[in-house]
Specification:
175 residues, 0% strand
């Protein structure tokens, strides 16, 4: 991910047949690592619940599986958003910091401004919020009918955000 900062990406592009192959490989590796990190986190979390949290009493395994599967989907999509942003900016460190600042602060501020100017309906489609809707709309919760964005629209919007960032990063790197 630091090939742009250390200018070794030029060698990679010169020794490979096409930039598209390099970019596809970068995005594939990012998706695989996002999936692997999430699998480890979910396995440790499930094991912790089984050992110290009393287990999954009252929860059916279909619901637990749906939540874990949706978590894997979100992790892969956010890994791709991060990789796309890294390609777009040319800085993986800056992209990680931007995402870490965007979710708790940037998206909250943008959401408040949108609500303040009467465009609050747009705020629910921001990437962090649509991730929340994706994760929580997969299970039957009491407030599900009140959720602004539900399944399958929520993950589709998150996929659109992923395609946008990956596409822009791909375009910028190709040019």
């Amino acid at each position: 991910g630091s090939e742009f900062q250390h200018r070794t990406v030029i060698t990679t592009f010169l020794t490979t047949r096409g930039r598209d192959r390099v970019l596809a490989t970068k995005l594939t590796v990012a998706a695989i690592f996002g999936l692997a990190y999430c699998l480890v986190a979910e396995a440790v979390s499930a094991l912790t619940i089984l050992l110290f949290g009393g287990g999954f009493s009252g929860a059916d395994f279909g619901t637990v599986g749906a939540v874990l599967g949706t978590g894997l989907l979100c992790a892969v999509l956010w890994a791709l958003i991060g990789a796309g942003l890294g390609l777009l900016t040319g800085s993986m460190t800056g992209s990680v910091l931007a995402i870490c600042a965007w979710i708790p602060f940037g998206e909250l501020i943008v959401s408040l401004v949108l609500h303040g100017i009467g465009l609050g309906a747009i705020a629910q489609y921001l990437p962090g919020q649509v991730t929340w809707y994706t994760l929580f709309s997969v299970v039957a919760v009491p407030f599900k009918k009140k959720m602004a964005v539900r399944w399958p629209l929520a993950p589709l919007v998150l996929i659109l955000w992923t395609v946008l960032f990956c596409g822009l990063g791909w375009w910028r790197t190709r040019n």
